[in-house]
Amino acid sequence: MSNPLLFIDFIVSLDNRVYQNTKDMTLDFVPKNVTAGRMLVHTEVAEKEYRETALKFIEAIFQEFAKDSMRFFQPDIHLEDPPYLYTERSFDSVILPALHRLCRGLVLAELPVKRSDHETSGRIDYWCIYEGYSFIIEMKSTECCLGYGPKKYRMIGRWGLMCKQLESSENDARKYIEYTKGVIPIGLHFVTAKGSAAKWDYRGQRMTELCKETMQEYADAVSKPHTVDGQVRVHKPSFVGGWIVPQNNRYPIKGEIHPFVMLLGKINPRIQHEGAPERRKK
């Protein structure tokens, strides 16, 4: 059994403020018209400046994801259809605008890349510049079932595939010529919780504990050796976070509830590309 993850607990609000309460935090701590929900975050200890920047970036993306997802809850126009109910293509609806804001417009989606594993062509989900660094981003999404993990093995497989795709794009990234401090490859794996509304008390405080338990279980699972294309690999997450949807928005949609969304993030070593200070032609 691994050591329990220690989570920072805070409120995400639509007015760009963070409300912290380390004791008894309830959604009433923030006015309902600005609340985007509660967030639990665990990160690695960043020993280098670029990793600290990458962790800050991932957390900012996750907060923006939560805020923009809340815009899809508008009962007055009969809109109750957040993107996280669907596939990762639907996540683009909120991730791309978030990157556009955080990176001041310097973001490209579906950037062509040559994979080094099979010398085949592929696409990086996103390229962007944030706080002086270039980032290449691979993204995946999976569903998990509340209370048990029959889809956990699919999640592990997709996590491993994401990490492999990220690694296979690094050689191509070394050729980038923009004058930045380096290229940081990151992976974002969103995991949407799913359960039967008839079975779960979806408005109860139990969801917070269940979110923590699920994040611990999944972080443990992806940190263990697993097989990717016949090779045994270990890809420990750098970031583990959970966004708990506000109580007023946990109501059933088509008989199912989706009370929280997890994010498992992976940060690979910084790449000294052609535009990095160490390699710029004098």
Describe this structure in words.
By secondary structure, this protein is an alpha+beta fold. It has one domain (45-267). The protein contains 5 helices and 14 strands. It has helices at residues 49-70, 88-102, 152-168, 170-173, 206-223; strands spanning 8-13, 18-20, 35-43, 73-74, 79-80, 107-115, 120-130, 133-145, 183-196, 226-228, 231-233, 239-244, 256-257, 260-267. A hairpin with a 4-residue loop joins β4 (73-74) and β5. α1 (49-70) crosses α2.
Whole-number total of structural domains: 1
Task: Kindly state the percentage of residues in helix.
Answer: 25-40%
- Element string (H = helix, E = strand): EEEHEEHEEEHHEHEEEEE
Report the oligomer. single chain
* Beta-strand proportion: 25-35%
* Chain-averaged pLDDT: 83
Q: What structural category arises from helix and sheet content?
A: alpha+beta
Give the uncertain stretches in residue-range form: 18-34
**What separation lies between the terminal Cα atoms?**
53 Å
